[in-house]
Amino acid sequence: MKRILLAVSIVAIAIGFTGCKSDLEKGDEASAKGEFDKAAQSYQTSCDSKKSAIACNRLGALYERGKIGDYDYKKAFSLYEKACNANVYEACASAALIGHALEIKVKDALPLAQKACDNAIAYGCAILGNYYIKGSVEKDKVKGGELLKEACDQNSAIGCYILALIKKDGDPLEADKAFKKAEKELQKPCDEGYGYYCFALSYLYKAGLGVDQGYKKSLSLESKACDAKIRDACYSLALGYEYVDRDLAKAELYYEKTCDLGDGSVCSSFGLERIAGYGSFSKNVIKGAELFKKGCDFNHAYSCWRLGDLYDKGEEGFSPDKTTADELYKTALPLFRSDCDNENDENACYMLGEMYSEGRGVKIDNEKAILYFGKSCDSRINYACYILGEMYSEGKKVKIDNEKAIFYYGKSCDSGDKYSCEALNKLKARK
Question: What is the residue extent of each domain of the chain?
Fold first, then answer.
C-alpha cells in the first residue's frame, strides 16, 4: 500500500512539474488565442525578472503591432533594444527597422543592424544593405546589393523589396521576380499589424510592380499603415487626396495627422501653405500658426522660426509681439546650429546667416553672418552665394570687395543661378 501511495505521489509531483508553465509560455499561449493584454502581462513579468529576453522581444512586437492599446514605437524600441543586448538577434533587426519612425540616427541604428546580420538575421542584412546603397555609412552599392540579394534569398520581405527597387531600371526581369517575392513575403507581416510592411506593399500596388496595379488596394494598405502610425504612409495619403482624388478635406486630415505624428517638416510646409493660401487650400493664418506651433514643439527649427516671423511682422490675426518673436527665434537658433554643424541640412546654415545678419533672436554679428552664409554657399545653396556677392559688391555690412563679389556671384552663376549671372555681368562691366 505504501508503495502504491509513493508511486501516486511521484506521479503527482511529476505532473505538477510538467504542468508548471513559464511566464514566457503563458504569454505565448495567450497571444496565440488573441488575448494580448494577458500575454503582455506574462511577457512583462518574464522580461522584468530577466528570466527571458525572448519575452522582451515578444512584448516589443505587441507594442509595435498595436495589440496593447495604441501603437507605441518608443516602448517597442526600448524592449527590442533590451532583448538585443541579451543577444536575441531578431530584436536587433526589429529595433533598427522601427528606428526610422523614431528618427533614430543611422549611427545608432547601424550597430543594431550589423549585430543582427552578423548572426544570420536576414532582414538585419537587408537594413544594412540599404545603408550601403544609400551611403548612410559608406557608399558601396556592390556590397549593399550582395547583402540585399542574400536577404531576399532567405525570404526577407524587406530585402526583396529594396533589392527590386534598385534593380527596377537596370534589370527589369530580376526586379519583377524580386517584386513578386516581396509581395508574397510582405503580406503576412502586414496582416499581423506591422505597419512598415503594409506601406511597402502599398507602393507595389500603386506602381504595379510585380502585381496588377490597383490604386484602391494601394489606398487601403496606406490607410492601414497610417493607422499604424507610419508617418510616410499618412503623408502619401495626403498627397494622393490633394493631387489625385482632389478630396481636400481628407488631404487636410492626413497632412495634420502626419504633423501630429511628429513630422515637423510637414507641420511647417503645410502651415506655410495655409498661411500663404497657395496651392489647393484657402488662406487661414490661424490654422497655419497652429501647425507651426506643433512643429516647434517637435523641435523643428523652421516651424519655430516661421511662427516667430508671424509675431515679428504682425501678420493677419497676429498683433506684432517682438518679445514672443524673439523667444521663438532663440528656440530656433540652436536647432539650426545643430543641423548646420552636423551637415543635416545645408539650408540651416543659410538661416543662421540670416538670423545673425538681421539680429533675429541674437545681436547682429556680421562676421558670423558671413561665416554661415559661406558654409551654405559651400553646400551649393545658390542664394547664399548671391547674398555674399551682393554684400561685397555693394558694401552691405562689409567693405566693398569686388574680387570676393565676383567669386561668390561666379560660384552661383556656375550652378545655374541666372540672377547671379546677371549681377556678375553687371559687376564686370562696371569694372
Answer: 22-120
Determine how many CB atoms are found less than 10 A away from the CB of residue 214.
Answer: 15
Given a cut of 70, whether residue 310 has pLDDT beyond it is yes
Q: Is the pLDDT of residue 4 over 50?
A: no
Q: Write the pLDDT tens digit of every residue in 13-47.
A: 333 334 588 999 999 999 999 999 999 999 999 99
Q: How far is CA 120 from the centre of its chain?
A: 26
**What is the pLDDT, as a whole number, of residue 355?**
96
Contact 23, 43 (CB under 8 A): yes
Separation CA 268–CA 265 (nearest Å) = 5
Average pLDDT of every residue of the chain: 90
Q: Hey, what's the cell of 427?
A: 559687376
Residue with cell 499618412: 234
Pinpoint the alpha helices (H) of 261-365.
264-276, 285-297, 301-313, 322-341, 346-358
Q: Rounded to whole angstroms, how far apart are CA atoms 124 and 115?
A: 8
- Which CATH class, in words, describes the domain spanning 22-120? mainly alpha
Indicate whether 336 pLDDT > 70.
Answer: yes
The dihedral formed by the CA atoms of 334, 343, 231 and 238, expressed in degrees to the nearest 10: 100
Report residue 149 as a C-alpha cell.
540579394
pLDDT at res. 411 = 93
**Would you state the pLDDT for residue 233?**
97
Closest to 118 (Cα-Cα) out of 144, 155, 92, 94 = 92
Three-state secondary structure readout of 102-146: CCCCHHHHHHHHHHHHHCCCHHHHHHHHHHHHHCCCCCCHHHHHH
C-alpha cell at 205: 500596388
Cβ neighbours for 309, distance < 8 A, ≥ 6 positions apart: 325
